[in-house]
Structures are given as C-alpha cells and as structure tokens.
Amino acid sequence: MPVLTRLIPSPVVVDIRPGALDDLACVLADERISQSGRLAIAVSGGSGARLRDRVAPSLPGADWFEVGGGTIDDAVRLAGAIQGGRYDAVVGLGGGKIIDCAKFASARVGLPLVAVATNLAHDGLCSPVATLDNDAGRGSYGVPNPIAVVIDLNVIREAPVRFVRSGIGDVVSNISAVADWELSHRVNGEKVDGLAAAMARQAGEAVLRHPGGVDDDSFLQVLAESLVLTGISMSVSGDSRPSSGACHEINHAFDLLYPQRAAAHGEQCGLGAAFAMYLRGAHEESAAMAEVLRRHGLPVLPEEIGFSVDEFVRVVEYAPETRPGRFTILEHLALTTEQIKDVYADYVKAIGS
Ligand SMILES: [Zn+2]
C-alpha cells in the first residue's frame, strides 16, 4: 500500500506576537514541554543579560548558561555544562549564534530545543541545521527541528533595525532560490519537492508584497512567520535547496573572498537574488525585487555595501565554487568575466537608480 501522506518534522508550538516572551513558562507547561519548569537557558553574555533580568522572575526553575560565541567548541562546552542537569528542555534565548549553539548542544544531550529568537536576521531560527565556526572555517551540522519557536515582536523591535532588514533579504531570496531549483529540474532532471518549494516561495512572496515596513507589527509578524516557514521548508526537503541558490552562492563568495568586509547575510542574499533574477531573464521580477529591497533600506548595488563593480564581478565569478554540486543560474550560464561585466551593466540600467 502506498504511503498516502507524510509527516513533517515541525515545532509543536509556534508563538509569534508582541509579549510572547512573558508567557513562555505557561506555554511550555501547557504544551507539556516543561511541566516542572526545569529549563537550561542559553544566553549571550552581552545583550542576553538584560533579557535574563526581565525573564528570570517568571522562570524560577531555570538554570542560566552564558554562551561565549558561535563556535563548535562553545556548543560542546554548553552541552557539557547542561549534561546531567535533569532538564526538560534547552532554551536558546538570543540571536543566531546562541540558537545555533543551543540547537547543537540540545541534540547532543538528547533534549528538545525551544528557540526564542531575539532578532529576525535570517531563516536559521527554525531550521534543522546548526551553523557553527570550526577549525576549517564554518560548518553546517544537522540537528532536529526546535520543538517550540517563540518570537516576541516587542523584543524584535529592540534589536538593531539592520537585523530585521537582513531577514527581509534572506526570505525574499527564496523566490530566486526556488527558480534555481526549477531550472535544475528542467536542465538536469533534479527532483523538486513541491511542498518545500511552495512553502519557501510563498514566504518570499508574502514579504515581497507586504505594503508595510520594519516599523509596523503586521509586517514584522509576516516576516517572522515567513522565516519560520522557510526553516520548515528545509526540513521538508531535507536540505537548504528551497532557500539557497545563486543568491546564497553570491553571499558565500562575499564572505569567503572578503571576510573582513562582508555585509549582513540577508543584505548580500537580497542583492544576489535581485541580480540572479536578472541573469535568468526575469527582468521585471528583478526590478520589482530591487524596488522592494530599496524601500526597506537594503542594498541592490555592491557599492551600497562598500564593494566596487570589479569586486562584485569577482564575487559572481567565484560564487559557483562555494557550493559544489548545487546547480543554479550561475552554473547554467557559466559566464566569462567579460560577460558578467556586461550583464551587470545591463542590470544597473534595468533597476534604475
Ligand atoms: Zn540564508
């Protein structure tokens, strides 16, 4: 008999709203994630201290662990500190580094993870991957999805606005990533997971078409939900394909070629996506995407994040090497340096200034 449906690994709780953090203990108890209140909470030493002061009174049974940074050593150290503490769950309370450390540590000690994101910089807050720095640079480690995702929009508003903008670029780039996936299907017969593609693309479209801005709650709500759905789309497909194509290869190339000068993840991905859409001949979509990115204060030209045209051409040329095996519009066109220069000049004309 065929399997008629499939189960999707996904969080039991997704709580996104202003004030969500104040109800954390109740939500975890109601959902039987932690009835005893015994929680291991990972926070950063810096901005985490303020949050800790605010949240600690409502979580009397919790132990707090300061996480040094975003390396594999930090994550292993955290796992060691938590081990044997008889906790119900690990809570990662912070930005990407803290949540990634907590994801890895919770997987290692066999406890569920509650992700409490304090900024919306990228789609990793609900994904089955922990990105951690190691001796070889940066590694992606497969981990279970969080059992709960809590995003307090009041806390998000306190984060630097650049972090919110970065999330916009990351989620809008899904549209380009899914187009790359479909291209690979047409050219190479790569299998596209329709559900994962639908979730990722709709998340991108929702943010692209939302008329609001980073200052209003209805926009932040849609952005946060879109980032969560993007993370789950990666669980559905089993890899980062729904949210990572030429846009992310360009982002990785910025990071690897210019590690000291690289901009935020979503800034580079958004620029990469607008350019990749132009490359694939979707000129109107590229211009529309660039217009939205501009409206939110995101870069659409390399100069806007401090890179010359020649440096950007080098980035685009190098990008395919950052992700061997992933087929995108960059691998498909395999442009020469001169061709990249020409098409970039056309892109600049097309999006206007
Ligand atoms: Zn990303």
TrEMBL record:
Taxonomic lineage from the root: Bacteria, Bacillati, Actinomycetota, Actinomycetes, Kitasatosporales
InterPro entries: G1PDH (IPR032837), Glycerol_DH (IPR016205)
Keywords: Cytoplasm, Lipid biosynthesis, Lipid metabolism, Metal-binding, NAD, NADP, Oxidoreductase, Phospholipid biosynthesis, Phospholipid metabolism
The protein's name: Dehydrogenase
CDD domains: G1PDH-like
Xref: Gene3D superfamilies: 3.40.50.1970, Dehydroquinate synthase-like - alpha domain (1.20.1090.10)
